[in-house]
Design brief:
With 639 residues, the protein is an alpha+beta fold. It contains 15 helices and 21 strands. The protein has an 8-stranded mixed beta sheet, sandwiched between helices. An 8-stranded mixed beta sheet has the order 14-16-19-18-17-20-21-15, covered by helices on one side. It has a 3-stranded antiparallel beta sheet with strand order 2-1-3, covered by helices on one side. The N terminus is likely disordered. Bound molecules: zinc ion.
Length: 639
């Protein structure tokens, strides 16, 4: 399915869903309010519809009329879910509504493919404990309920919950030599009912940690980058979603489609509906509460406490947002001037993605507080379009102003590329059969963001290094390795490729040198002159130690832009007693073996590289026999 949305498109095309057995309504007759939406009501009472929107003002007005779908209208998405009564109400305001199919009912129990918040938290604790050198869990603050010593729901039920710590997982290879050269922050669950987003965040953590030492591009990424992942940046709100589908009456029905946090201290909060409705709930919309352009000059927020987009009583009034901003500031410096038109420099470092759903699949570019372009618009759009090559999402500016939002804060205050990505799906709780595809379609986007997070505004214009291959994949020290790759600038500015280079590093090594300091690769056709060039090099392995090595390749285009690395691994094997892979068993091997033996006696740390006896197969322990094995082969060459 093609989910591309044209940038700046105001007229939303009608998309007919391939739903068997449903007649789509034709053009709306004049007396729309009285037109039945279908001959037979769907069992759910809910329909997929499209609404013709002819201007940004239309979209803003519809967001007021249908506050649940504010984000969809903001993102220019074409399909939403309405009841027959809502369809009548929208038509009575003069809009053309086209019914395109039956929508599923709101789930009447917790869908099996989604974790409860407590399960997500315990999974993260366990996964981190199992990978202590890859994951560091940081408690960056408390939810509103925790700051209050716990929350109690309005009378008469008086349901209590304690509130949560705000947890960010820092994913990196702590054992790598460093320094780290890029930081990427991503969070799910800021809108509580958008429950696919924490599942995606979880899958991203698994992809990274399980990929180290398996996927060469994850290996170097975790050696060089720090990735920060928050499963749920709004745990109080998530408790409210789950409360609706709880185990005790009256909260044992549908999960509540709760969007905001659960701060009920603002005057008027207890006059909001309880149990909540989609149109009336207390709490603060965290995506309107950031300090940057809070209560913005063009509107784009609500000052009504029960509204979906209530901005809160003051900038960053909510502890979740204060903690979010403070934490991101602590890892990424402020790199942009204070003026609305001050561009951030090209060498900005850092990257942020704020996950939401559901739409047709949209990447939202800053600004949101104004429909004008930001001073880094060209770079921000270039990155967004590049991301869309991985997931086929649309790229969109806000159709109408939305102030105090996360992407504007991160770009506006810090100058970094920052996006809302609205996952595709079929509802806030997307159907379980869609979830694996939603996740797998997005993982390459998150991986790309981490890849270019060192210098995103520069890397996005540099060519991709694709199809990096090392052959053979296993060689004796000294034998050549043929390294090949395709340097491709077609998705990065479409300029001719000018050069390529490679570095050979060990997993865990410090980042290789600056662009231009690597070993040159040749154009396979003899000349660098095309936007796509196959490149080749012969890697000399003399002097490389036994074990895994990474060949890291990157390209340069004619505009002077170096792209990000892409890597392939190969193994160097040696004659079993040639420990330093020098092509012969020499005095260095004897010294290394002796040092290892001493280290083993002193520290009791067993290094399998030195376990050589029994013909190199090893006996499971490093001992004197291993040293004697090396000595016995002294003077023997490997080839
Ligand atoms: Zn959202």
């Amino acid at each position: 399915m093609n989910r591309k949305t044209l940038l700046g498109t105001l007229l939303l095309a009608t998309i007919l869903l391939a739903t068997p057995g449903l007649a789509a309504a034709g053009p709306a007759p004049e007396n729309e309010a009285e037109t039945p939406v279908a001959d037979v009501q769907p069992p759910s009472g809910r329909y997929y519809v499209t609404i013709d929107i002819s201007s940004g003002q239309d979209a803003a007005d519809l967001a007021q009329l249908l506050p649940d779908w504010d984000e969809s209208f903001e993102a220019g998405s074409s399909t939403i879910i309405l009841t027959a009564a809502e369809i009548a109400r929208v038509r009575s305001q003069g809009y053309t509504v086209t019914v395109v199919g039956d929508a599923p009912a709101v789930p009447d129990a917790w869908p099996a493919c989604y974790s409860h918040l407590s399960d997500l938290n315990s999974w993260l604790q366990g996964f981190a404990a199992a990978h202590p050198t890859m994951i560091d869990l940081i408690d960056y603050g408390d939810s509103w309920c925790k700051t209050q010593g716990g929350c109690t729901s309005p009378a008469p039920q008086n349901w209590s919950w304690p509130g949560d710590d705000l947890i960010v997982a820092r994913i990196t290879n702590e054992l790598a030599d460093g320094p780290k050269t890029g930081r990427f922050f991503v969070d799910g669950g800021i809108h509580a009912r958008e429950i696919p987003t924490p599942e995606l965040a979880k899958a991203f953590i698994e992809l990274l940690v399980n990929g180290y030492g398996v996927d060469p591009n994850v290996t170097w990424l975790l050696d060089e980058r720090e990735v920060y992942v928050v499963l749920s940046s709004n745990p109080d709100g998530r408790r409210m979603v789950e409360l609706g589908a709880g185990t005790e009456p009256p909260y044992s029905g549908n999960p509540w489609y709760w969007r905001k946090n659960s701060n009920y201290s603002v005057a008027g909060s207890l006059a909001c509906a309880w149990p909540p409705t989609s149109g009336s709930q207390f709490g603060i919309d965290m995506n309107r509460n950031h300090v940057f352009k809070w209560e913005g000059p063009n509107g784009g927020y609500s000052d009504y406490v029960c509204a979906q987009t209530f901005r809160g009583p003051s900038p960053a009034s909510e502890p979740e947002i204060q903690a979010y901003e403070d934490f991101v500031r602590s890892i990424i410096p402020d790199q942009r001037g204070p003026g609305d038109n001050d561009p951030a420099p090209a060498d900005v470092t850092g990257f942020l993605i704020n996950l939401h759903n559901y739409t047709d699949g949209v990447i939202l570019v800053p600004w949101g507080w104004t429909t004008a372009n930001s001073p880094n618009n060209a770079q921000l759009e270039a990155i967004a379009y590049k991301m869309s090559t991985y997931n086929s999402y649309g790229v969109q500016h806000a159709l109408y102003p939305v102030s105090g939002n996360t992407r504007d804060w991160a770009y506006g205050e810090l100058g970094i590329p920052a996006y809302v990505i609205e996952l595709y799906g079929d509802d806030f709780f997307s159907n379980c059969n869609l979830l694996p595809g939603i996740i797998s379609n997005m993982l390459p986007v998150l991986k790309y963001a981490a890849t270019i997070s060192d210098r995103p505004y520069m890397r996005v214009y540099g060519p991709d290094a694709r199809s990096v291959a090392a052959s053979p994949t296993s060689v004796a020290s000294g034998a050549p390795v043929n390294l090949t790759a395709q340097i491709n600038d077609t998705q990065n500015g479409n300029q001719p490729v000018a050069a390529a280079e490679y570095f050979v590093v060990r997993p865990g090594d410090a980042p290789p040198g600056d662009p231009g300091t690597g070993t040159p690769m040749a154009a396979a056709d003899g000349t660098f002159n095309s936007t796509i060039e196959n490149v080749v090099a012969t890697v000399a392995t003399t002097g490389l130690g036994r074990g895994t090595h990474l060949a890291m390749v990157r390209g340069l285009d004619s505009g002077g832009n170096w792209g990000p690395f892409s890597a392939q691994s190969f193994e160097v094997t040696c004659f079993f007693a040639d420990i330093n892979c020098s092509s012969q068993v020499d005095v260095t091997d004897i010294m290394l073996a002796a040092e290892a033996l001493q280290s083993y006696w002193t520290n009791g740390v067993y290094d399998p590289i030195f376990d050589l006896n029994n013909g190199g197969a090893g006996d499971g322990a490093f001992d004197l026999l291993d040293v004697q094995t090396v000595a016995a082969n002294f003077g023997v060459t490997t080839r």
